[in-house]
Design a protein that fits this description.
The chain starts with a strand and ends with a strand. It has no helices and eleven strands. It is globular and about 40 Å long. Strands 2, 4, 5, 6, 9, 10 and 11 form a seven-stranded mixed β-sheet that branches. By secondary structure, the protein is mainly beta.
Length: 121
Amino acid sequence: QVQLVESGGGVVQAGESLKLSCAGSESSSRINAYAWYRQVPGKERELVAYISRGGFTNYADSVKGRFTVSRDNAKNTVNLQMNNLKPEDTANYYCNQGKYYQGTYYGGDTWGQGTQVTVSS
């Protein structure tokens, strides 16, 4: 069974940075696309960023210019570099395997357990 394991979350102050990583049990070169989502209690899961096999990336407006998604196929990982963090970035962050097709990311059924990011003001 394919597994995804996120890491790198923590508690930081506003303006600081964190780097999240997601390690997959399946060769990432076979994965069409990855995405990072986040969720706070009582709200729907929000798509934060995604990256295709070819390196195309897209970001939610709220994180553009601050977050960078990347993938390392040699290490079967996908990363999310988060800079200039804000209190509103506080959430549980999840990675997801899916597909990218004609400008749209289609989420798959494989999720990690999540990693908590807390940003204090």
